[in-house]
């Protein structure tokens, strides 16, 4: 499977590095080759930096993974609690903010999301039972 440690993520982190904090692997597009889903953020010494969620693939015979989709952009101010690949779909538990006025320490939205490969792109849905706090 693609190794996210070798990927070049589109994050601007200033003096700190982008780090992979969670990952999950599985065949997402039915081609019998594994993709890796990586949760990445800037390695900030303080606070909880927002996460980006990226899907990586790797061509046969290469060692460099390629980002094929951005599921969550760090600009969205989302934190990913957990992520998994099950039955060809990506499932995530997310924390977010209902407005810019909510302090960044204390997310007030608790959400679940699911992405599935359909017609050439990842389509997001919200699983049954998902709710806000």
Task: Describe what you observe in this structure.
With 133 residues, the chain is mainly β. It has one domain. The protein is 0% helix and 46% strand. A four-stranded antiparallel β-sheet has the order 1-2-3-4, with no helix packed on it. The relative contact order is 0.18.
What's the structural blueprint in terms of helices and strands?
Elements: E1 18-26, E2 35-42, E3 52-57, E4 66-72, E5 79-86, E6 89-96, E7 109-118, E8 121-125
Antiparallel strand pairs: 1-2, 2-3, 3-4, 5-6, 6-7, 7-8
Termini separation = 36 Å
| DSSP summary, beta strand count | 8
pLDDT < 50 stretches:
none
Reading the helices and strands in chain order gives: EEEEEEEE
Percent of residues in β-strands: over 45%
Class from helix and strand fractions: mainly beta
Radius of gyration: 15 Å
Give a summary of the structure in a few sentences.
Helices cover 0% and strands 46% of the residues.
Write a concise keyword list for the protein shown above.
133 residues; mainly beta; four-stranded antiparallel β-sheet; 8 strands; 0% helix
